[in-house]
Fold these 4 entries.
Entry 1:
Amino acid sequence: MVSEESGPTTTTVRPHTCTHHTLHDQVQQSDPHRLSNLASAFVELDLEQKIDVEIRMREGTTRLLAACRHQTQTLEAAKSLHTSNERMSAYMAELQRRRRAPARTLSQSTPSTARVSVSDLRMPLMWRDTDHFKNKGDHRRFAVFVLTRIGTQILDSTLLCPVDRSLTDLTYPDVHVFNNVPTDFELRLEIWGHVMQDDMSIASTPHKIKRSIHSSISRTVGKKLAASLRDELNTGRIGPNFELMASAHLSLDDVGDSVHTHDLQLENVEPRSHQLPLFGHFCCRLAAQPDCVSREAYSGNALLLESSGVWTQMHGALQAFRLDLWRSLNDKEAAKKPAKTVTVDRDTLIQPGKSGSREILISNVIEGCDNVVILKAGSAEEQHKWIRNLTQHSKDHLRWKQAALEKMEIQSPGSNRNFVRQLRQGSLYDETPLIESVQTEFANHRPTVQDIFGLTPASSLSSCASSSSSPTFRERSHSNSKPRPNSGTIRSHWPFSRNNHD
């Protein structure tokens, strides 16, 4: 009931919230079977709309892929087409599953879902030492991206291209966020790769073959070959084909606030030359934040039994596994400190009071002693709602395990999605100091490989040494051996130095 003093202001405050509570009350009073059928209809309509969107996306991407002339555009369009096909298949499978499953009635209490994020994704590559350091041997180049999926939610990462022997690992800056995730979720991570054959002499595209048909073979055979190529393009095999290189499965047990290492299951890719040289492990940060932590699970009015034995009117809000009590709703909206806070977690005991008393007993063990807080609802129905939501909140704290014990930050998804690979930030080899004490131009820091050889983070030692414009190590050694003013002593720490006996 609104008082006359606050009536003129409360009529314009949060109209959307008032509408939400009105619909919520109607839902609580409706037939559960009718609500279940209505919810299923909404879910099916949503899935059908998503399928329709992916169909239009696929048609547009196919036309774009056929018109692409640059390699980076072609690879990005092929990745988008592959992701759209995966989403459409997931939507159709879920739609069929829901139509075959029997109708279920809605339970009185709904378990809390959560937001789950995947970030700091990194996968080491296993090149031979001659491939990476001497820049010879393995000539393969890949285009690689990652798909993460929970249920029908499928998210794709940035396309790294090209991935060759100069890279020691795959690092993705993307943050994938999933909404409304249940506790029994299974996150599937998939690594999709494509071998780029454009730099090999045996490779050729259908367009190049088609342009050379009339000059190399007879007209009759040329027509047949052109027809087969045209059929191949029309059957959906247009553009680069990405293959599943490896996959992994993560669950609630893998959730944590820091980066952890997990196992990769390598797939059998034929031919073996198309297999990305993965090490068999990857690391990422898998974080989860229950929705009952980020927003209110329930709120309402109740009487609190003070230590003096007086009942005091309170407004309570259930969130983040605690019950905050204010003297009034205005104090809560003014962001004032709660008058009392009661813990509601997996160890909390919630039970009704004596029959007909409308009391709610919330019991916690504090320093070995039972601490009981007694609330009284305005009616038997409100008492039932309070007990139901308090009990569900306590169960959610147990069901979400580590995600409920510590609050994990859910990062916002980034908007930086580049087609080309980012420059390498440097490896352990590049950052290893070679000279211990120098008082010339390296007086403030110990020089690294990059400092001595004049390398950039994106270049390799061998490629710089093989360049005709760059001086060799012997030339740099002679130039460094010339007397300089205020020059200090330089002590070599090369492992093969004859003068190094340290």
Entry 2:
Amino acid sequence: MSSLSLASIFAGGCRSFGAPVTALRTLASTHTYLFNKHQNNNSLAWFSLSSRKGTFSYASSGAEVTCTTTSSSANGYLDYDRLLPCPSHNRPPRVEHLVVLEEGPVLDYICKALNLPHLFVADLIHFGAVHYALVCPQPPPTATPEQVSLFKKFTAPSVLKKRASIKGKTVREAQKTFRITHVDQFLEAGSYLRVHVHPKRFPRCYEIDWKSRIIAVTESYVVLDKPAGTSVGGTTDNIEESCATFATRALGLPTPLKTTHQIDNCTEGCVVLARTKEYCSVFHGKIREKKVKKLYLALAASPVPVGVITHYMRPVNIAPRIVSEEFIKGWNLCQLEVLECKKVPWPDAITEETYSVEDCGWPSKDYAYECKINLLTGRTHQIRAQLAACGAPLVGDSMYMPAAIAEIASPGVNPFGKFQKQCTSEEDQSLATAEWVLQHGKEPSVAIGLQACQISWDDGKHIYNAGSPWWRRLT
């Protein structure tokens, strides 16, 4: 069998580190949920999800797996170097869902169940990529009779009443998942685990001079000029590679910064990070009371009319976000105000390459249009979806620009656009909506033409501005 390093497995050709591990076996998996009883008989794989035809399990080759020690980098904060070097591209998702048959520490359990090295699993826990529930969740609709039988076995009242940890809880409450934060956390038999073996990575975090991105530091909060290609407060499977974590380290703060609001990973600009739980609650209150005002700069592919633009957004919490110009009962109001729109040169090839701006196939790239926008309602992807619906998608927006191009080529393909075709039944409407969703592309990997250029609150008592947007920096 060939010998592989963790770097070659998870970083795709980056420098090697640590002792080699041996690939013991390959577990078959598919896009669907699978049932698998692991060989150690101490656990059950409830189902396994992977977008590759094969998922890999690894164990040490007898010698102790070693890693380089944590060291201090030039900018003063600690390097985290077990899941490093960070791969330049994310690996296909691999999520393992497990039911515990034998109690014990979480680290030992996962290592045995998935044949993964101890240090790597410890890093997954550090990254926040491992979640648990006291009771396994309801199996998916695609579950086999055997999977359903297992669920019933572990949630039978005669079994649950013997577990002191869930006394006083409903089954639904016991199925709530929590992030595991300690490698020695004890697991009861019957507990459920979700392990993100390939967490989403953010290589941009390691390229940024974070101190230079700090706009303001006060006793209560920090204002950061967030770089594109980063997550404000982390993701379901990665809380390590986030703006909050790296800004905390750059400032040498003893307590981690806390997120108060979000902007998309592909968007840059002003975000407020709270230094205390108390101020986090205070700022959330200001947002609820609409005391926080946000201005954006958007680089659109076509001109946008000045004034208020209104749409209604489908209340489905997945991307892409679908909007309609006409009122639809139950859909959420989306409003933004375009304060100005000016013609500017389309970013040149060097600028686009520097900021990893994707070529989405827009037919005319002589000019773009920089718009200043006052966001009146704060919906996810609102500016991106609304401007695309106006035929002016953002430069580099690989999710919404393909749909805008498709609508230009085939008016009527958008069932909620100006040239929408009347559907005769709910089934026809559902099919048209599903086809429209398919016209959209994937989420951008790094930057799009969008910056949160200013944030203010308390009637302008506090005002903070971001630096120049990426499309101006090399001109």
Entry 3:
Amino acid sequence: MESSSQRGEFDYLFKLLLIGDSGVGKSTLLLSFTSNTFEDLSPTIGVDFKVKHVTVKGKKLKLAIWDTAGQERFRTLTSSYYRGAQGIIMVYDVTRRETFTNLSDIWAKEIDLYSTNLDCIKMLVGNKVDRESERIVSKKEGIDFAREYGCLFLECSAKTRENVEQCFEELVLKILETPSLLAEGSAGVKNNIFKEKPPQSDASTSRCCSW
């Protein structure tokens, strides 16, 4: 996957969504992918947003990536962002069992409830493998969950950037192989996913949609 230099032109526009418990590293994963940097970030308030231009298999892609808050109090705000997403990345922390348990208890159910794309590609990501000595969730458990729920699967580290590019590349490649999603993401389609305005939960604390 290469970053595209011609930012004004693209063949496809794909909407991707990051979901999972608070503190699993969704924001740092996104920052690592879009900026090649690592920071310890405070929990996302509502929804954050970044754009990344890449070239995959000769196609210029514009990725609109939405990073949702994991806290329960924001869940009603973020439900609308599932609409029209071609790819959804479920993130858990390999050092925290409850973040893995909540995948089936909460997040898979949210996808079923709110996702409008039947062909939407799902990716399961186990983050923080740099903390191997603290690991509680085994790789086999991740693989088994991914098989059961029909997800792609990778373990990664936003901190060391291990497998970060691969997470997004594998997801995008699968979208490119899915005709219905490809048609939806065509540059000719007039759906403007940037028109979505994040609901303001609290204007004084919200950092929705950072460009």
Entry 4:
Amino acid sequence: MDLEKVKRFLEKEDDGKNRSAIEEMPLRFFERFVMQGIRVDLIEPGRLVCSMKVPPRLLNAGNFLHGGATATLVDLVGSAVIYTVGAPFTGVSVEINVSYLDAAYADEEIEIDARVLRVGKAVGVVSVEFRKKETGKIIAQGRHTKYLAVSSKM
């Protein structure tokens, strides 16, 4: 095993030109990068259905939707659905898990269906399912647990 090769892969060393461009990106750039192009198709208490065409910027080396982008969508859309039940804030992630069942390719229309499973005083749990819009075939299923900060009694 070539440990230096692994190190170079992770560190992505460059000549410094890209570093300044990356550092100048706006705050919360990553969320906008993943979410751009998403459309809300249905919103009701406890449920949020969105759709989007898979953009080339979110593809992995195999040319299908990157698992990290899918997990980010579980996080962001899963957090948004918590607002639909009247929560004043969405808290912080405690756990996110994603089961990847199929692939979605560039320009393929997908549907993201987020549902509140439970929102209590301290914890919220949601499920997020990804489907191919044309066939209804499941691409991924996620579950997101969030700690809903309890307001201080001071």
